[in-house]
Design brief:
single chain, 2 helices, 124 residues, alpha+beta, 23% helix, 8 strands, two-stranded antiparallel sheet
């Protein structure tokens, strides 16, 4: 049975889902937006600032699950504007040091009007 991951160091779920799950040796991190968990809202408007916070949120869940960025094997990234691709990558590469497999797509809208969202799969 899968273990549910919950940490106060990442935003609480804004819907009927968990921050993450561990099953076997894999950690599944739900899509993380740039909500600052300390204040419960998005504090920055730039893609760089939002990507930074989204990455920190992914990291907090990975840590709570006993994993880390070096163990990430796959990410899916969602951008509200594909024109932000290069700037997003500039932040992303500082965190996802294992060069995981990745999909990055532009979408029409993201929850709360944010500019990016990141989900991840990692080894425990």
């Amino acid at each position: 049975m899968a273990e549910t991951i919950a940490t106060k160091n990442a935003p609480a779920a804004v819907g009927p889902y968990s921050q993450g799950k561990v099953t076997g040796s894999l950690v599944f991190v739900s899509g993380q937006t740039p909500i600052n968990p300390a204040v419960g809202k998005v504090e920055v408007d730039t893609i760089e600032g939002q990507a930074e916070q989204a990455c920190k949120n992914v990291g907090a869940i990975l840590e709570a699950a006993g994993s880390g960025f070096d163990k990430v094997v796959k990410t899916t990234c969602f951008l509200a504007d594909i024109g932000d691709f290069a700037a997003f990558n500039g932040v992303y590469k500082k965190y996802f040091v294992s060069d995981p497999a990745r999909s990055c797509v532009a979408v029409k809208d993201l929850p709360l009007g944010v500019k990016c969202e990141i989900e991840a799969i990692a080894e425990k």
